[in-house]
Amino acid sequence: MLGDARKKLEKSLITTFIASHAVASAENREQLTKEAEKEKTETFKNNDKKHIEKLKSAIKGNWFKAAQKALENTRNKCNDI
Question: What is 11-34 written as a DSSP string?
């Protein structure tokens, strides 16, 4: 009976002091990863728009239309993320 109480106490101590820190660290890493992903996606979208404008001023004709369509398709896929 004393052994069971000791095991319960040890489990409680581990849960309180070690597991809570590990959970907090994992949640923190997950949040940082999500923020970095959002930042990279926004950077890509902004750069994509800038590249289209530069191409539009530099290139004319069917090739540009095909390149613009490809970039827009890529942007749409990023919006789905």
Answer: HHHIIIIIIHHHHHHHHHHHHHHH
